[in-house]
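Recap from last week: sequence in, structure out.
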Amino acid sequence: MIKITVDPKVFNALKLAFPKPANSANRALTKYVSVLENMLFESLHHEATPMQRKLNLFALSLQKLANKGGQIGPKKIRLHQWLRDNNLSLVEPVIIGSNLTAQVSQVKLTDQVTMVDTLAIEEDILSVNSTVEEIDLYLSGDEYSNYGVARLLYPEYSNDLTQEQCEELFDLVPVDMDSVKNYILWLTTESKLLTKEKKDQALRQARIILAVASVMEGHFIQRKKASLFGRMYYSGVSMQSVNKELRRAVLGNCYEYDIRSSVISWKMGYAKGYLETIGSEQTVRDVFKATLNFLEHKTDFMATIRHFTFSEKTPANKDFQLKLLKRAFTAISFGARANAKGWQNDSGEWSNPALVDILKNTHERERFLGDISVQAFIQEQAILDNHLFDLVNHYRQDLLKLDYLNTPSGRPSKAKILAYLYQHDESEMMNVVRQVAAEFGRFPLANVHDAIFFKHKLVMDIRSEIELRMQEYSDNPYWRLTPKQLSRYERKVVQPKIPEVNKEEAEYNQQIKQFMRYFGDYSFEY
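Predicted structure tokens:
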């Protein structure tokens, strides 16, 4: 929660300017402050940029603040405008937003305001030397504040909602609360690799999840936000928006199942149809050798590409190099161009192609694009992209007329149309996964696009049946599920320090040891 305290002179000036009706100044200022608190709370959901951190800036829409901040007086003056005209503004714009760039303003709080973030972590309270009870009490928060967070984030959620209404609006995720607390402790006391911005964002998200789960019987609420492209997203904090480690902490011990190389597997489902369309007698393996090698022998394929792409002087370690290559191949499969030149967009900002942003080193990018297997992969992906776009031109011309699938100039965008087709088919495949799993009494903990999380492992028979049904449903033999076991965060056990023995007691113990060695272990009678 964000709590704002306003300098009394602001209220006094407002009351003096608008004495009637009674209490109108108080009501107007209270409403404006509440709106500002909510907007600041929302702005903190996102990772702070270095500039925001350095200058203590917040990203928010001044127009939205003015519109929602309320009015006052018989002339219905916007309070936001009145505060500005009287040099009593609570926020000061540093960078003005623009509708052209779709960027909101960057603002800072003025001297009229004192802000407290109740979700911020006080690192001196959390340490490996703190007791379990102290840490739990601090991270659990007070019940009143936790209810406040839940009401702020989900004002439409209430006990009056039927189960059908609730399922239509939200997805609930069970939270391993002890695991999340252990994650916060680890992130605060041990994490070394995350930037300050990413760490603060993760800590804040974890505190929000704990606050909501504490008043929702151990569940976190995700508000559904369906995309026109076919995927189900969630607004605000969700299992999709948090980092993988926080997601692991929330879900605890469970199993993750991803669709193997999902977009590439999806495209390969159209390979056979392409050969039939052009009347070729070649096999799928003849024409799409590199893509099949990627799908069937991915580990060896990626290791070979890594060897020829990166030199021994590359600072990134092997695992990170493989992550970069995975991102590069994913970008290619979504239509990323192989050219290495950027361009200036309409707002004057410089944009780089996806591959340039992924493989920033020029020599590494040139070696990657110069590899024979990569070149073959790019050519094969282009063939499938063109084939899919031709199918749309013949059988789904309705898609060509949708504004959100067009370029800014009004022409159909191949990349957007392919993304639309893929995401709709991906959603259908995940529905098949959930349906078949439910037949075996397995229900997901959470869903993240082409990944699904179950509490217990899907034994081979269940997994094979799911894959078979996916392949039969779509007439695509390339769908596969890749399993991964996830473990909850455990609290680090600190060994208690052995109290120091004083010098006299140590000397006495030493004398006893020498005595026993000399006389042996005898009993004496007196």
